[in-house]
Amino acid sequence: MARPWRVVVLDDGYPDYETERTILAAAGAELVLSPCRGDAAKAALAMGEADGVLVRETPIDAAAIATTQARVIVRYGMGYDNIDTAAAAARGIVVCNVPDHGTEEVSDHALALLLAAIRRVAEADRRVRAHGWGLPIDRKIHRIRGGTLGLIGYGRIGAAFHRKAAALGYARVLVHDPFVREVPAGASLASLDTIAAESDAISLHAPLTNATRHIIGRGFLALAKPTLVLVNTARGGLIDESALAAALAEGRVLAAGLDVYENEPLRHDSPLRSLDNVVLTDHSAWYSEEAIAELQRKAAQEVARVLEGETPLHPVNQTR
Prior knowledge:
Blueprint: E1 5-9, H1 18-26, E2 29-33, H2 40-46, E3 52-55, H3 62-66, E4 72-75, H4 85-90, E5 94-96, H5 103-119, H6 121-129, E6 148-152, H7 156-165, E7 172-176, E8 187-189, H8 192-198, E9 201-204, H9 218-223, E10 229-232, H10 241-249, E11 255-258, E12 278-280, H11 289-307
Parallel strand pairs: 1-2, 1-3, 3-4, 4-5, 6-7, 6-9, 7-8, 9-10, 10-11, 11-12
Helix pairs in contact: 1-11, 5-7
């Protein structure tokens, strides 16, 4: 009798994995928890006899992929820059993500960061807790209505954020996304330079690729208004953090709200930690109880599809 398929989970952290076990058992697969905690070498060992792989943050590099017989790797979430998709494709391994699980949560969080940064909510909270009172005269706050909102990336989350932010009264919405040819009424496509120079607020919703890494860098920030508020709930690598920290410290950018960082957790010595005009959260934009349940279910279903010979819904590489 042939052994059941073996599906390995490389990262722990969810309350339980009964959803995955149930879905995969119906497809003739057993689930094996093998937490690697970000260690690529451990991932290579864990993947050795896997037919399917579920992963969150642990890197899956070419060395790990060379060890495995897996047919499918599914990333819990949208981004998949921790997986060497080209190496996987060369070995006939399909890589999939789950791009449609936390749209409402991430767009909600982006809106929360935008408002918190504009209204200096976290700073006021710290002031009151320290028995202070009264906004310092040098802490500028500007009206939202009538301003210009820039969106870099206009997929599911960018569009959801646009829908929610529209209620704030922005007079213009500028969108930059090379894969989008048409945007809804009330928005217009624009170049990155135009968005940099004309936006009062910018929210990032682009994937991290070679083309988008440090898309917000010294050149972009040099064009920005000193009243700019920048929000990032997408990928930390979209921003050159040193350049942003300098611009914030020097008053060339008014404020920022960040949920993602180039290196996570955020480095202890990051200059962002010492700035009053930055709201920092811990890569938690995706979270809600409903989103976790949806993510676990959809990730397991994608593995099951491939193991059963069906076409996956969300492949991100092209196998031979």
